[in-house]
Amino acid sequence: MNLRVIRKKAKSLYTRSRIPGVSWSVNQYVGCVFACRYCYARFLTRWRDYGEWGTWVEVKTNAPELARKRVEGKVVMSTVSDPYQPVEAEMKLTRRVLQYMDKRNELSILTRSPLVTRDIGLFKLFHSIEVGLTINGFTGKEKELFEPLAPVHRARVSALKELHDAGLRTYAFVSPIIPGVSDVRAIVEETRDFAGYYFFEVLNLRASGRNFRRLLREEYPESYAVLTDEEKFRKFLRELREEINRLGVRAEGIETHQRGWEFVKL
After folding, report:
1. Nearest to 191 by CA among 119, 249, 254
2. Which of 234, 201, 228 is nearest to 213 (CA)?
3. Backbone angles phi, psi at 104, to 5 degrees
4. pLDDT digits (tens, 9 = 90+) for 150-209
5. In whole angstroms, what is the distance from residue 105 CA to residue 101 CA?
């Protein structure tokens, strides 16, 4: 696949966030070549006429200089991209942003990529930092259908362990959870020794796009039925909540999107 890299200068890097508990988001890249087929960030193609999602990445060339700003509150990297997607291996933009960033900023990083372990030394310079891996357990057919270009499950788990073993605060972002497909218990049992806490999110079906909704309806009709039927969804959510509580891990709740954004406390 030919990747189109669009280089731009940004006016600012820190953007006010509407995510509860988060003050700022940082996206030195916009767009993501992992191109997960359920990704909510596909909405960006409405305003960026660069082509199909996953075929382009917008690069904020002056992001390292903009990163110097001192901000108050929690900063999350990234929300409409992956900071360690393949282009980062060569461009090292994320690495340079981290080098320039005020180390007093409270930083939370989320990625799918084992490339994140490259910057362990930089992470240790921050006064307050946590690093998370998106882990959903997709393998085989599900991996091919849902996120064929993303790093494999085993690599993500190994990266999380390496971060933990290096003394960093870690978390596992278990997402997207798809009824009848995701094995939350297996994910937790595999990672509980090196995940400081968990964040759980059920698939945002509405934001996943028409093509993914059709794929899920055709390939996993029972999963689709649960996500689109109020009674079935509430039953699924109740059972998921009970299972997570039985697992006894540190987690605040479950993010859902069936009727708009909702956070279900554990």
Report:
1. 249
2. 228
3. -85, -15
4. 999 999 999 999 999 999 999 999 999 999 999 999 999 999 999 999 999 999 999 999
5. 8
Question: Each residue of 223-234: b (16+ CB within 10 Å) or e?
Answer: bbebbeeeeebe
By residue range, what is the domain housing residue 60?
Answer: 4-265
Cis ω before 78 (30° cut-off from 0): yes
What DSSP string describes 89-118? Answer: HHH-HHHHHHHHS-TTSEEEEEES-GGGGG
Please state whether beta strands 197-202 and 14-16 pair in parallel, antiparallel, or not at all (unpaired): unpaired
Residues 6+ apart with CB under 8 A from 253: 200, 263, 264, 265, 266
List the structure tokens of 156: 């993500």
- 75 with 26: CB under 8 angstroms? yes
The angle formed by the CA atoms of residues 30, 34 and 40, to the nearest 5 degrees, is: 65
Q: What CATH number has the domain bearing residue 92?
A: 3.80.30.30
Q: What is the pTM of this model?
A: 0.96
Note the pLDDT tens digit of each residue in 240-263: 999 999 999 999 899 999 888 899
The helix/strand/coil state of 194 is: coil
d(CA 40, CA 139): 21
Please count the structural domains in the chain: 1
